[in-house]
Amino acid sequence: MKIIKFKEITSTNDYLKENADLLDNYDICVADYQTNGRGRMNRKWQSVARTNLMMSILIKDLKHRTNYTNITLLTGCIIHKFLSKYLSNIKIKWPNDLLVNNQKIAGILTEAQTKGNQQPIIIIGIGININQKHFDQDIDQYTTSLAKETGQIYDLDNLINELATILITEIDHYLDENNQFIDYLKQYLYAKNETITYEEEGKIKQAVLIDIDEDGDLIINTNNQLNKVHTGEIKIIR
Ligand code: BTN
Q1: Shortest CA distance to 196 belongs to which of 232, 214, 217, 222?
Q2: Distance between CA atoms of residues 110 and 194, nearest Å
């Protein structure tokens, strides 16, 4: 495993994707600045240079796993554990965000690439707001950072090394055996038992968020009917 650092790159996810053949399992790419940082649903991920954590990890060996869809949820739990050393009251918003008091502190973008009938490779991209205290006007009220929450400034390199170590350990453990992270996720699930607004096929709807099941699917109650939702089928709106 190695950590490859860039002052500037298009996107750490793209770097791992484009160079996967030359890289090893669990190699990590970090950047001080991304010129084309990406989020889910074709959104941009913008960050001031040398201020926040932008990291991606490459998984080339899925071991015996064929179903890896829960890897984003697992990563959310890992980030939650990591940030909880510095901050309390963090929630995991299904499927890929971490929030503090309804404000986003981190996001995950997982991408898979398949070649022929080989095992797919997985790239997990992680953006965590660390030292940035002010954000663009349109997102400032919905966005937070470690520094905004605690008033302290953090050593990014230390945090990168710390997160890299726990990511590799926990992902490897998950791939080896069925790591029971679902119980952890249930404990810190955002908006449990609350009415959520969500978007499904372009329509805005409301439901009560009940729980998540053992497969990591969301269980919601829409008009007194329980529905299961797979990753990515709905978008919870804050
Ligand atoms: C989201 O909230 O929609 C996911 C954001 C993921 C951002 C990270 S930053 C490092 C990696 N490189 C990218 O281009 N995106 C991810």
Answers
A1: 222
A2: 27
At position 110, the amino acid (one-letter code) is: T
Task: Indicate whether residue 39 lines ligand 1 (CB < 6 A).
Answer: yes
How confident is the model over 79-101, as pLDDT tens digits?
999 999 999 999 999 999 999 99
Nearest CA to ligand 1 atom 10: 54
Ligand 1 contacts CB of residue 43 (under 6 A): yes
pTM over 0.85: yes
pLDDT digits (tens, 9 = 90+) for 184-221: 999 999 999 999 999 998 899 999 999 999 989 999 99
Q: Is there a contact between 110 and 66 (Cβ–Cβ < 8 Å)? A: no
Place of tokens 């009940």: 210
Could you give the CA distance from residue 38 to residue 19 in angstroms, rounded to a whole number?
Answer: 18
56 CB within 6 A, ligand 1: yes
Q: Can you tell me which atom of ligand 1 is nearest the CA of 36?
A: 14
The residue whose CA is least distant from atom 15 of ligand 1 is 38
Tell me the C-alpha distance between 159 and 42, whole Å.
Answer: 27
